[in-house]
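Components:
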Amino acid sequence: MTTMEREAGAPPAAETSSKRSPKVSSSERKSQILWLVGAIVIIAYALIPVAWILSLSLKAGDDINNQRFLPSDVSLENYRIVLSSDIFLSALRNSVGIAAIATTISVVLATLAAYAIARLEFPGKKLILGVALAITVFPVISIATPLFNMWRTIGLYDTWLGLIIPYLSFSIPLSVYVLSAFFREIPWEMEQAAQVDGATAWQAFRKVIVPLAAPGVFTAAILTFFAIWNDFVFGITLTSTEAARPVPAALAFFSGASQFSQPTAPIAAASVLVTIPVIILVLLFQQKIVAGLTNGAVKG
Amino acid sequence: MAAIEIDHLVKQYPNGFKGVNDVSLNIADGEFVILVGPSGCGKSTLLRMIVGLEDITSGELRIDGKRVNEKAPRERNLSMVFQNYALYPHLSVRENIAFPLRLKKDVPEEEIRRRVDEAAGLLELGELLERKPAQLSGGQRQRVAMGRAIVRQADAFLFDEPLSNLDAKLRGQMRSEISRMQRRLGTTTVYVTHDQTEAMTLGDRVAVLRKGILQQVASPRELYEQPANLFVAGFIGSPPMNFLPAHVEGDCLDTPFGPIPLSRERADAVAGRDLLLVGIRPEYFEDSSLVDDAKRPHGSTFQARIDFTEWLGDAQFAYLPFDAEPEVRDRLRELSQELDSDQLRTQAVVKIDASSRIREGQTAEMWVDLRKIHVFDPRTGENLTRDEEAGAELTRQVAADRAQQVDLAGGGRSSGTTETGGAGPTGGAHRADAPQSVDVRDAAGSRQMSGGSTT
Ligand SMILES: Nc1ncnc2c1ncn2[C@@H]1O[C@H](COP(=O)(O)OP(=O)(O)OP(=O)(O)O)[C@@H](O)[C@H]1O
Ligand SMILES: [Mg+2]
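Structure:
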């Protein structure tokens, strides 16, 4: 995930540095060069591990010991192994399903809650936001064991629901926090204008506030999805079989082509594969997160 | 179309502060009423109470005779233009304007299209319909906000300082457009502003608010000629009225600019008081050497030192400092703070002919027209020389003008739209696209103070 964020952040910096007009003073040129160097360093820092994993995943058999960065022969063997492995496919199914369900529920509930927090004055509002923030920094590992025991007793162990519930309890507070900041930015008057125009409170929310908050909602959705997609702690402690085990946990159980060969290259291939949905999501949502959507709402 | 009756409305905030305090005002069907006052006086609050965005603490609000205190904004069928326009940024101009119609389930698509096109035509938005608000200029956004307000055939329009974000030129243009539009649609309109010009030129009647309390409701002319108190006198007019300290001495007022003789009734009105304030508008002064012989007997002349002059081409302002005792100085400073004016009040601003050769630092002979000056009690602020009958007469005149103009505008509406307001004298229309100060001065007649003594 860290890699992804860096990747997403790098292109604009590179763009700035390449925008060079013919007449620039030497100090401007110097700062541009600095920008360029900085951008290259950051891109390299972010992309080299990715490139490495990619090259690793393309090395067949014993080729991973070839002492070189690039594979001697580009081979898709590892991908074939991974994609024909039941462990990986079921894990992928679990991950996609659990992350999608948990993200949807989390974002819908958080949107409603954040709207109430941003718009209504009620006692304990500060406390709620404070607690929400506290939960997002709460060490996940400390509740893993209690949950393990509890889920086994009540039968939620190794089920999708058993993972969705803890995911929700961590992602909703974060989304509420992010979204309430977003809602606060939307001028009250948008909504009042809608009411004067004849909208009910619900219509005003649905037709005006939600579209305006869409960038925030997508941001929250992406953050939530990534957090769940990358989760390892709950994935490994609360599951035991292919019924619910998500990809990050499943990779640890990966064994490769035969019992005796090191699974490094297939794991690299699996890692590349699980990164693909994340990249697709970012590309899709990036267009939705249009900065400054509220431009033009007010004044000039 | 609707009449709005504001009956002893009070808005008390949770901290106990009264943003609007016992305001009563009847707005007739089709009337254009301006709410004006310095910043923080409760104009927006009152408007938002009318539209339903602010709860009413006590009092009653009636639209067409029906109590609406408890009604939600959407049940009041009023439309509002917000100070910052509050356009929906995610919708195109067309959809912004159509928004109120789409919320009504029963308006067919082609009807929506027709009405949006009609409103857009009226506001010259035709080519902008497919744009998003972010792609519009300030004036265009303002017109879109207006389009959204008029498309719905609401019972009344409420405007909250709609022009305050525009530059001076555009403001002038939009002002006349609003005026024309209201005239044409004949819809009851309440318009909040703190701009002098908008207040004087747009409204049939102007309601002046101060700290949540209604001071006076009258036609612009009446406010200008017959202000109810010191606050209204100081607020209306630009540059503002000069206030000079005065002591009663028999039939005369002793002021820093020499004695001012009083007529019988006026002398009676001020008798028995010690300190008074005399209110004289800048244009009542003139360079003594340039006064017509015919006019001269209506005023008096005095010598004064000119501190500073400003030549503006069509006229000239001169600043005449005067001495005032601490009590008066404090009162004047207080007043100017309240009026949001930065004017130093212990100097008189006088407006004289542009050809006058009076120069800074000289002592010059000035003439002052005494017919229309007013005398105020500095403690209560009450205008002791207010002539109710003259004021009512002014308002009757403009009511007649309005009737005529409404017929001309072809609004198809009958003329009897004036009605006595709850807190002030009658209102009528006065439409002045041209500067009005000249004819106002002559129309006000010579029934007031007369006399001509010299220092
Ligand atoms: N929630 C609140 N609690 C307490 N006082 C408030 C509250 N909201 C507004 N006020 C006060 O009510 C008064 C009236 O406010 P209002 O917005 O009506 O002023 P205004 O006349 O529209 O001023 P402006 O010309 O600056 O827009 C102000 O003095 C303001 O400080
Ligand atoms: Mg206001």
